[in-house]
Each structure stands twice: as structure tokens, then as C-alpha cells.
Write a structure and sequence with these properties.
Chain lengths: 563, 78
């Protein structure tokens, strides 16, 4: 995330705005204190005791993804690339979320694993598990640090607090409620945060639309008319040929990148695993996909509006960078120009809430993987459950301290570019993970050796493509501006993983069928994959398949109307 | 594991926010504020919307209590 440059973004926050902010944080901490009373085992603390209703886990699922980089980055993309940004929401998320719910959740939830790496261990054994668990834990700490740093930069720009103060204060708030209430507190706060973010973004969008003269006014005033349609998105992909640009979008973003992210990222999947039944677990990502399909209305649209009505933004768009404003400033500038005190406080609260919930999602998934997948599996086995509950709490403290450390490293490195690289890199590490999972779930012949070989080879492919295409590394064998390089890197990583996994499987020994029940499609009886349709899972409107079909239809209609 | 009802927390927070914004919108809105927000009393309208949201969650929580089917005793937290 780019530093907010030299632009003056200071908001005119008054006592009423601070009061609203304080009320919110009091409620956040209150949730932590109240959730503590229901924590009596490590499963309660790390997985909410698998007791949450689907609407809660569904909204948390989407909220965990609505962090700092998402909110600032996507409004920025809206201003820079226009309507094409919707691809990140529609083709780049909805099909993958439906797939996770209908196809993969039965194995994740049905096998009663407590984390995504644990699934890896049971399916492929220890080498693949260790690779997955350690890389996940490290990545979560790094991303938590980036989120903290981004948060501190915003607080500094908006309210004028020094960076170190905001980093530490924000980390302490997250620490307080996640150590007390565990995943339940994190999830409850994510749901609350979802509504606060919408309450912050909706007024900005409505006032922006009024100012620009309604939808028609916006259409008239956007100078580059290509930015009003989502296809073929040549600017976004960096691929000049429109046909290949669409292919890149559909295969690169819509298939490999998005399926990799949504179906294997434990910070997301954990929300579904904490649901109270198989039906609720399947519905979690699907319920989350409805707000995901609709939320571009208050994220992408304000970005496009800002490029028209905010003078500095219009200037930047015409190529004049003298104001010091960068695209990431879209939201603060709109807040400055449109919101009076009162609702301004709600908007500031929404921004800060979103950033903290991002950190909390990183921390709460880290502590689960650390406790169950690293500590319990490799360091201290067979202790009583209270022991692991304590380890979980201590891991939370450790995660927050480490995240403060990585946040300061980010700050020392100047913040902007190096962190962008790390983000980009991680985004396509997920592609080989997805390849390994999907092959392993549907092909019982796939062997443990193939599991870790495919994963490592795929990951190195992604790193290689990244290294030769990133301009600032100076190798430049491959020139693809925009998102093209990460689409290609993810696509190749996926392909290499699949091909190698198949080849290695053919010459190594598979696990016996008896160890793969519940983990592989052909060895899992249909009733173990099905959900109940009685009691709180009854009713046609709770059918995961129907809900999934509904959101796909909704997305198609949105594409036809706005694409 | 039984948790308190999140719907009541949402109702509480947005009820409070809504009332504060309605009061600010009705009593403390200057011409400058109005001009900034394109002549719309955004605090008032956003406040009303939040009160409605709050009422909706409170109604949902009242009509469909969280533990009605399994446990006769509602939680005491809120």
C-alpha cells in the first residue's frame, strides 16, 4: 500500500466524531469480555466451539476479507481503472465462494479437521503439512504487520497521531478482545464491523452520486468512456489484445487466483469451520457471497465518482501528479469533501474497524494453526485440553507482539513498495495450494510425496515468474504491466503443480484407502457429505445449492446490467 | 458453548448511533454542513436509517430467540 504521500488529508474531526469512535471501541472490547464467559476449551477459543449460526459466519467470512488493503485498494482501482474493478468482486470471488461452499466444505467440515493445514496432514502426511502450516503462520504474521502499518498510516493522515502510537494502540485493542474471547470475539466483531463499514460507505456513495448529478450525470462526466464498461479490461490486465485480456481475466483471476485464495486461505475457511452444522458451514461462503456481489456499489462506484468530483483526483487522472495525491487517497478525500461532523465519525470508525478486523482475522487464524498444527503436532503432544487453551492464548499475545514488530519493519522500509511485493507474492502462492487440494480431494491415487513435491514446485514457479516480470528487479525477461504477470504466474504455478503431482503419483506409493475416508470424494459415503435438512437447517431457503445458484444468477444479471 | 446474542449488540450500537445522529441532524446542523453534503441533511437521514436497522435486529432477536428450542433460560448478558 502506498504511503499517503505528501497530500494533506487531515479530517476536521470534532468531539462528536471522537465520541462515536469511542463508543464503538467500547462495544468491541465489551464483546471480548462477554465472549470470554463462553470459552471453556481450546476448541471454544480457537474454533468458537463449532456453534455459530450461518448468517454470523457468512458475514464474518466477507468481513475478514474487507481489511485495509481491500478497502483502500479497491476504491483506488475504481478511480484508476473504472468499472473493470468489479471483476475482483464478481468473476474473481463469487464462483470460488460457491465452489468452496458446495464442493469443498463437505470435506473440510465433514472430516472434522480444525484447520486447513490439518486437512493437508491427514490427506498427505507430515512433509506437506509442515510446509503448509509454517508458510501460513509466517504469512499471517507478515500480513498482520502490513495491516497494522496501513492502519497507523491512516490514523496519522486522518487524525494526526504518530505512527508508533497508533500501531501499538491498535495492536493492543485487537490483542485485548482476541485473547479474551478468542475466535468468537473476532467473528462477532467482524459482523459488527461489516455493518459499520456499510454505514460508512453508503452515505459517501449517495452524496457523491447527488453531487455528480445522479447515475446519468456520472456517465456523462466520465471522460474515458471505456472505463464505464467492465470488459475487456485491457487496462486492468495490462494485456492489449482484448481477447487475451478476457482469457486472462476468466482463467487467471476468475479461476486460479480466486479459487486459490477463497478455498485454501485458512483465515477465511476458519469462519466456515466454526459454523454449527454441515448445512451452516456450506452456507457460510455462499451467504457471504451475496454482500460480496453487491458491495462494489459502495466501493467501486465512489472510486469512479472521486475521479470526477475530487479536484486532486481528476488532476491525477489527467497525469498531473503535482498535488501529491495518490489513488489510495480516494476514501479520505471523499470523506473530507462530502461528510459533515457526525456521519464523519461513523465513517472514520468504519475505516478503523475494517483495518483492525483484518488484523484480528490474521491473528485468530495464526493462533489456531500455531496451537494445533505446530505446537500440538510437533512439540508437545497429548497434553490436557486446558494446556492447549493456554497455548492458544499465549500464541495470540505472541502474534500481536510479532505483528507490531513486522509493522515497524514495514515502516522502516518506507512502507510502500516492499509490502506491495509481499502481498502480490502471497496472492499467487495460493494457486499451487488449490491445485494440490483439488487433485487430492478427487483423486485417491494422489500420493503423499506428490503432495509436497507439487506444492513446492508450484510455489517456485510462481516465484520465478514474479522475479522475471517485476520491473524493479531488473531481470525483465517478461514484460506484462498491470495484473497480467500475477495471472500468468498463478496459472503456470497451478499447471506445474497438477502435472508434477500426477507424474509423481504414478511412480510413488499412495496411502491405503482406509486412511482416506472423509478426505477423498470416492471414499466418502454420500451421507457424510450431505447436510441435515431438519430443525434449524430446514426450509428451502436454507438449501446451499439453491442459495449458490441464486448468487450466480444475481452476478450474471449484474454483469449484464453494469458490465 | 453458548454465546450471547449478537443481534442485540448490533441493535444496541446502531440504536445509539442513530439517536445521536438524528439529534445532531435536527439540532446541530449548520448551513456549512448542509452545503458540504449537497443540501442533504445526511446526519438526519443516516440516523433514521440506523434506527430502523436497530429496530429490525431487535425485532428479529425478540421474535426468534437464540436458544428457544434447546434451552428455556435466555442468557443474562443483555
Amino acid at each position: 500500500m502506498s504511503v499517503l504521500a505528501g497530500a494533506d488529508l487531515r479530517l476536521d474531526a470534532g468531539p462528536i466524531d471522537y465520541a462515536l469512535l469511542v463508543i464503538y471501541f467500547a462495544v468491541v472490547l465489551g464483546i471480548g469480555v462477554m465472549a470470554r464467559r463462553s470459552v471453556s476449551s481450546s476448541l471454544d477459543f480457537l474454533l468458537s466451539g463449532r456453534s455459530l449460526p450461518a448468517w454470523v459466519t457468512g458475514l464474518a467470512f466477507i468481513s475478514a476479507n474487507l481489511g485495509a488493503l481491500e478497502l483502500m485498494g479497491m476504491t483506488a482501482n475504481g478511480a484508476q481503472y473504472g468499472m473493470a474493478t468489479v471483476h475482483y468482486y464478481w468473476i474473481g470471488a463469487i464462483p470460488a465462494m460457491v465452489f468452496l461452499g458446495l464442493v469443498m466444505m463437505p470435506f473440510y467440515y465433514g472430516s472434522k479437521v480444525r484447520s486447513v493445514p490439518e486437512f493437508m496432514r491427514r490427506r498427505f502426511g507430515k512433509p506437506a503439512h509442515l510446509v503448509n502450516a509454517i508458510s501460513f503462520a509466517v504469512v499471517q504474521i507478515l500480513i498482520a504487520g502490513i495491516n497494522l502499518f496501513a492502519l497507523a498510516v491512516i490514523i496519522d493522515a486522518l487524525l494526526g497521531w504518530p505512527l508508533p502510537v497508533s500501531i501499538v494502540v491498535a495492536a493492543l485493542v485487537v490483542l485485548a478482545y482476541t485473547t479474551l474471547g478468542g475466535l468468537s470475539a473476532a467473528i462477532y466483531n467482524e459482523v459488527l464491523q461489516f455493518f459499520v463499514i456499510v454505514a460508512a460507505l453508503a452515505p459517501i456513495t449517495i452524496l457523491g452520486l447527488i453531487k455528480v448529478g445522479g447515475w446519468q450525470g456520472l456517465v456523462d462526466k466520465v471522460t474515458d468512456k471505456e472505463q464505464l464498461s467492465a470488459w475487456p479490461a485491457t487496462e486492468l490486465t495490462g494485456i492489449d489484445n482484448p481477447v487475451w485480456s478476457v482469457v486472462g481475466l476468466v482463467f487467471g483471476l476468475g479461476f486460479v487466483l480466486s479459487f486459490g485464495y477463497w478455498t485454501t486461505n485458512f483465515a477465511e475457511v476458519q469462519r466456515a469451520m466454526s459454523a454449527k452444522s454441515m448445512s451452516a458451514a456450506k452456507r457460510t461462503p455462499i451467504i457471504g457471497s451475496y454482500p460480496k456481489a453487491l458491495i462494489p456499489a459502495v466501493i467501486v462506484i465512489p472510486g469512479i465518482i472521486a475521479a470526477v468530483i475530487v479536484p486532486e483526483m481528476a488532476q491525477l487522472k489527467s497525469g498531473d501528479t503535482s498535488s501529491g495525491v495518490v489513488y489510495n487517497n480516494v476514501l479520505p478525500l471523499l470523506m473530507r469533501d462530502l461528510l459533515p461532523n457526525g456521519i464523519l465519525g461513523v465513517a472514520i470508525t468504519g475505516l478503523l474497524a475494517s483495518f483492525m478486523a483484518g488484523v484480528a482475522a490474521n491473528v485468530s487464524s495464526f493462533n489456531t494453526v500455531f496451537t494445533y498444527d505446530l505446537w500440538q503436532d510437533y512439540i508437545k503432544k497429548d497434553r490436557p485440553d486446558e494446556y492447549y487453551l493456554r497455548v492458544g492464548r499465549l500464541a495470540t499475545v505472541g502474534a500481536c507482539v510479532l505483528a507490531i514488530g513486522t509493522a515497524f519493519i514495514a515502516a522502516a522500509l518506507g512502507g510502500s513498495n516492499i509490502m506491495d511485493y509481499i502481498q502480490a507474492l502471497f496472492s499467487f502462492f495460493n494457486a499451487p495450494l488449490f491445485a494440490t487440494f483439488i487433485l487430492g480431494m478427487f483423486w485417491k491415487r494422489m500420493t503423499p510425496t506428490a503432495g509436497w513435491v507439487g506444492l513446492l514446485a508450484g510455489t517456485f514457479t510462481a516465484i520465478f515468474i514474479y522475479a522475471i516480470s517485476e520491473p524493479s528487479f531488473g531481470i525483465k525477461w517478461l514484460e506484462l504491466p498491470g495484473q497480467g504477470a500475477s495471472f500468468l504466474g498463478a496459472g503456470l504455478a497451478f499447471a506445474v503443480d497438477i502435472v508434477l503431482s500426477v507424474l509423481v503419483s504414478l511412480v510413488t506409493r499412495p496411502k491405503p484407502d482406509s486412511e482416506l475416508g472423509g478426505l477423498v470424494y470416492s471414499l466418502t459415503p454420500k451421507e457424510d457429505r450431505s447436510h441435515s435438512t431438519t430443525g434449524e437447517d430446514a426450509g428451502w431457503y436454507r438449501s446451499p445449492a439453491l442459495l449458490g445458484g441464486g448468487v450466480l444468477a444475481l452476478t450474471a444479471v449484474l454483469y449484464i446490467v453494469f458490465g | 458453548m453458548r454465546l450471547f446474542d449478537l443481534r442485540l449488540i448490533i441493535a444496541f450500537l446502531f440504536g445509539l448511533y442513530g439517536v445521536v445522529l438524528v439529534v445532531v441532524g435536527l439540532g446541530f446542523t449548520s448551513d456549512d454542513d448542509l452545503k458540504k453534503a449537497e443540501g442533504v441533511n445526511i446526519n438526519l437521514w443516516a440516523g433514521i436509517a440506523m434506527v430502523v436497522l436497530s429496530a429490525a435486529f431487535a425485532a428479529w432477536a425478540t421474535l426468534r430467540p437464540q436458544f428457544a428450542d434447546k434451552d428455556k433460560q435466555p442468557l443474562k448478558e443483555l
